[in-house]
Design a protein that fits this description.
By secondary structure, this protein is mainly α. It folds into three domains: 321 residues, no CATH class; 117 residues, Methane Monooxygenase Hydroxylase, Chain G, domain 1 (Up-down Bundle), CATH 1.20.58; 135 residues, Phosphate transport system protein phou homolog 2, domain 2 (Methane Monooxygenase Hydroxylase, Chain G, domain 1), CATH 1.20.58.220. It has 26 helices and no strands. Helix 5 runs antiparallel to helix 16, helix 6 packs antiparallel against helix 16 and helix 18 packs antiparallel against helix 19. The radius of gyration is 32 Å and the shape is elongated.
Length: 583
């Protein structure tokens, strides 16, 4: 009994180290890839071959088909990817995940040969672990620290594999083990056991690793190994299945697609194996090696892709049939929490959404300016809807960014998160001012207020200045253009001066009776909103100009600029002062 407990403990310990090492290694790989994953995935077209190689490449990079499928669920749920374009990526992911089995199969080579022994992972894994911890402790480069994590994760993974292999070697001597193996001679039982086990531990790589450990210890045949590999492919769908709860119909269809391709492929493979068994093909009864397990894993997923690719449209129809269309509220925002584990990807998506928010703000502001000349009730309704949408962006993005910022981020990602958190607040306030201008336009229209020719001319000048500062600010924000951002503050200073000048001229008209008190309130409200819009533009531009720096401090940065009004700043100020002078 003690011997059994020791072997079980060794197997569980090995599995624990294997899964933890896989997690550490894939985390390091994801961080090194950064937002590049998102940029590449967004370039995917309906070309399934492109999707296949992309899916396999990213899965090789992050070493987890389950994590990749969960990522797909999140991206489809967010509306970033189209469901119909995920087929190739899912098939590619299934092939990409087989790399782990090939790495593990190196354990079985090289006995008695010095040079081949050097190729064994357990030979160089300790060296990688040492290099990894040295890099992690002493390197100042964030990228190199992630590389260190990859080395450490791989070494832990291989240590876990070694423990599992050792436990399998010992378990052969246990009474009853042969009986257990005999149950696996039934392909259906082996398939079911593997599916359930993989579903519980949520790692097909770990299941394949155990099958390879069994193969290394001897006694497992091709007839037993094939269903175990097939079951691992089906069981790994459980992770994506769990992640699909609470998603929209298209995200659920991704999971159905993932499950369908593995089940259909497994059924076909099982039918072929039973036919071979009926003809008493001798290879099925032969013992399989670790390389043989890796070969079965790769061949199954590759041939499955070739078979199913021509019937992609039928599979999509099947998914739609299983998850039918329903009246579903379109969610406007936006980022799915299933991609939070990949922080560079999540931050890149937040960046994309903050750019969308900036464009909505620009659109709202320009339409509000147009109402001052041409009032239109439909435009008023549009601006109100836009303001609500901008509020949702600010609320959701703020929540996302705070969530993402929890934990460890490298300096560059942390700075980008802080910049977005600051900027979305200013964008939201600009949206509020667009609504304020809309209300002013409503008042002008309802009360039939008309400004004097002088006031109209003055408002045209400052309106044009505000339109330009909005365009410059949002263009620099979206494109990370520091050169354009540097021109915002000089124009903001000119707008401040214009506001004071126009206010003084307005008071003068009030005193001479050229303007009424009521018109004066409307005029002042417009000037106040214009000034505050330019203030928020200034803040956003300052955050863009501080991209290379460690900390965001708008007030300190602005004070520094204002205290040294020379060079480019002064040239730009003089240029804008001349451009927007009141004649």
């Amino acid at each position: 009994m003690t011997e059994i407990l020791a072997m079980v403990a060794m197997l569980l310990g090995g599995l624990t180290f294997f899964l933890y090492g896989m997690n550490v290694m894939s985390g390091g790989l994801e961080q090194m890839a950064g937002g590049g994953l998102e940029r590449v995935m967004n370039k995917v077209t309906s070309n399934d071959f492109v999707g296949f190689f992309l899916g396999s490449g990213i899965t090789v990079a992050i070493q987890s088909s389950s994590a990749f499928t969960v990522m797909l669920v999140g991206l489809v749920n967010s509306g970033i990817l189209d469901f119909s374009n995920t087929f190739g990526m899912i098939m590619g992911s299934n092939v990409g995940t087989t790399l782990t089995a090939w790495i593990l199969s190196l354990t079985g080579i090289g006995e008695g040969n010095f040079w081949l022994t050097l190729l064994q992972p357990m030979t160089f894994a300790p060296i990688l672990a040492f290099c990894g911890i040295m890099v992690k402790m002493f390197s100042r480069s964030v990228k190199k620290q992630y590389l260190g994590l990859i080395f450490i994760g791989f070494a832990i993974l291989m240590f876990g594999m070694d423990l599992m292999s050792a436990s399998m070697e010992s378990v052969r001597s246990l009474q009853g083990f042969d009986t257990f193996l005999s149950t696996l001679k039934s392909p259906l039982v082996a398939l079911l056991v593997s599916t359930v086990f993989t579903g519980v531990i949520q790692s097909s790589a770990a299941t394949i690793g155990i099958v390879q450990a069994l193969a290394l210890s001897g006694g497992i045949t091709w007839q037993m190994a094939i269903p175990l590999v097939l079951g691992a492919n089906i069981g790994t769908c459980v992770t994506a299945l769990i992640s699909a709860f609470g998603t929209n119909k298209n995200a659920k269809r991704v999971v159905v697609m993932h499950f369908s391709v593995n089940v259909i492929g497994s059924v076909l493979c099982m039918v072929i194996m039973y036919i071979m068994k009926a003809f008493d093909i001798s290879i099925l009864a032969a013992e399989i090696s670790m390389v043989g397990v890796a070969t079965v894993h790769t061949l199954f997923n590759t041939i499955n892709t070739i078979i199913l690719l021509p019937i992609k449209k039928l599979l999509i129809k099947l998914c739609v049939l299983i998850i039918p269309d329903k009246d579903e509220k379109q969610h406007t925002v936006f980022l799915d929490e299933r991609i939070f584990n990949n922080k560079p990807l999540a931050i890149a998506e937040c960046r994309r959404l903050s750019n969308e928010m900036a464009e909505h703000t620009r659109d709202s502001l320009k339409k509000s300016f147009s109402l001052l000349k041409n009032y239109d009730d439909s435009v008023v309704m549009y601006i109100r809807k836009q303001e609500n949408l901008i509020d949702k962006y600010e609320d959701r993005l703020g929540t996302y960014l705070v969530h993402i910022s929890k934990g460890t981020l490298d300096e560059n990602l942390s700075h980008n998160v802080a910049r977005m958190l600051h900027s979305i607040g200013d964008l939201e306030r600009m949206g509020d001012h667009a609504l304020n201008i809309c209300k002013v336009a409503e008042e002008i229209h309802s009360k039939a207020i008309s400004f004097s020719p002088e006031a109209v001319s003055e408002l045209t000048v400052i309106t044009n200045a505000v339109i330009e500062i909005v365009d410059m600010t949002l263009d620099s924000f979206i494109n990370d253009d520091q050169e354009i951002a540097a021109k915002v503050e000089p124009l903001e200073q000119v707008i401040d001066k214009l506001k004071k000048q126009l206010k003084a001229m307005h008071i003068q008209r009030l005193q001479t009776g050229e303007c009424t008190i009521e018109m004066g309130f409307v005029f002042t409200d417009l000037l106040t909103n214009y000034e505050r819009i330019s203030d928020h533009c200034s803040n956003i531009a300052v955050y863009t100009m501080q991209l290379p720096t460690d900390k965001l401090d708008a007030h300190k940065y602005l004070n520094k600029i204002k205290s040294s009004v020379t060079g480019d700043f002064l040239d730009n100020y003089n240029m804008y002062e001349a451009k927007y002078s009141i004649k």
